[in-house]
Amino acid sequence: MGSGSLLWNLTKKYLTVGVIGLTITDRYASVLPVRGGSMSPTFNPRTDTVLGSLDDRVLIEKFCLAKYKFSHGDVVVFRSPSDHKEKLIKRIIGLPGDWIGTPQNDVVKIPEGHCWVEGDNLACSMDSRTFGPMFHTLSNNTLGRAGLQKPELDQP
Questions:
Q1: CA 115 to CA 99: how far, in whole Å?
Q2: Among 62, 66, 70, 146, which one has the highest count of C-beta atoms within 10 angstroms of its own C-beta?
Q3: Total Cβ atoms within 10 A of residue 45
Q4: Residue 146 burial (CB count, 10 A)
Q5: With 0-12 CB in 10 A as exposed, 13-18 as middle and 19+ as buried, what is 144?
């Protein structure tokens, strides 16, 4: 009887911690690995030939979306317009009303509720130059704002 009661108490504790953890990562913040080099040198500034690329991790702030006013230079995480299972991390370059020059030498005015995002490494970034202005108001598309980056483990 004692071991069954102990097992039940442990199960309740783990379930409670799990529910709280899921609530926090779903509504407030989560940690996301940054894959690829589109945001280099800000994220993933180097690759290691032995281990392959070493992915940086960033804290994604989600709670801020309800009242936060995005500004130029903010780094945001959103669902890819071409594959909604894929998450992209890019920097906001243009906001509603801004005029942005495109690689095709066109000039685009950013519509209300949208923004223009680009990776820091333009040579290997799929961004607004590919898919146009991104819907950025509170929606299922925008997942959060990139906050803290983990410090490099090998720096002195």
A1: 11
A2: 146
A3: 14
A4: 21
A5: buried
**Cα–Cα nearest to 153, from 21, 51, 76, 28:** 51
Predicted confidence (pLDDT) per residue in 67-123, tens digit = 778 889 989 888 888 888 888 899 999 999 999 988 877 899 999 988 999 999 999
Least Cα distance to 141 among 86, 74, 60 occurs for 86
The pair of three-digit structure tokens given for residue 15, joined into one six-digit string: 């379930």
DSSP state letter for 92: E
Active site positions, annotated: 38, 90
Domains and CATH numbers, the chain: 32-149 (2.10.109.10)
pLDDT tens figures, 35-81: 888 888 888 766 554 555 567 888 787 776 667 788 899 898 888 88
| Residue whose C-alpha is closest to residue 125's, from 89, 101, 100 | 89
Instruction: Please state, in angstroms and rounded to a whole number, the distance separating the CA atoms of residues 101 and 30.
Output: 34
Contact 119, 91 (CB under 8 A): yes
CA 69 – CA 90 distance, rounded (Å): 16
